[in-house]
Amino acid sequence: MKMKIFMPLVGLLLLLVACADEKKETWQESTFFESGGFQMLGIKDKVGFIYDKEAIPFTANQPNKYMWHFWGGEDVLTGDIKVMGAFEDEPDEKIEILYDKIGFLSAHNGADYHIPSMMELPKAGMWKLEVYVDDKIFDTIYVEVM
């Protein structure tokens, strides 16, 4: 009789421990780096966009120009470019931030390729920008919107 009660309790305990071990994703602004004399937000030597938080902060509901920069060879950087955004308080609801069928332009500001864009995010807070190249995740950038 004791085994019938003990085994389900052990199973429940293991389930609780496993759930407690799941790490919640930490959302913090990506790093700033310099390339070609410009400050960029993103992942150095991979992907980023020109952004000077002090001069012109990313402000909710205000569209602005952002020049995206990509590093890598033609074997990786081909196809359509898409950026999907998710708000930290609603991470499962994604909106399209950028979609470019034209493709990558020439080298610029120290990067292998660049793409001009207009971006706008609807809410203040932390945003996760998932960058896709040819429908495959390329990398993720986090930006704080004022």
Helix-strand blueprint:
Layout: H1 2-21, E1 31-35, E2 38-43, E3 47-50, E4 64-70, E5 81-87, E6 90-100, E7 113-119, E8 125-133, E9 136-145
Antiparallel strand pairs: 1-2, 2-3, 3-4, 4-7, 5-6, 5-8, 8-9
Give a quick set of tags describing it:
1 helix; Immunoglobulin-like; mainly beta; single chain; four-stranded antiparallel β-sheet; 146 residues
Structure, explained:
The chain has one domain: Immunoglobulin-like. Helix content is 14%, strand content 45%. It has one helix at residues 2-21, and strands spanning 31-35, 38-43, 47-50, 64-70, 81-87, 90-100, 113-119, 125-133, 136-145. The strands form 2 sheets. The protein has a 5-stranded antiparallel β-sheet, with no helix packed on it. A 4-stranded antiparallel β-sheet has the order 6-5-8-9, with no helix packed on it. Strand 5 and strand 6 form a beta hairpin. The longest helix is centred in the N-terminal third of the chain and has 20 residues, at 2-21. It is globular, with a radius of gyration of 20 Å. The relative contact order is 0.21. The model is unreliable at 12-22 (pLDDT under 50).
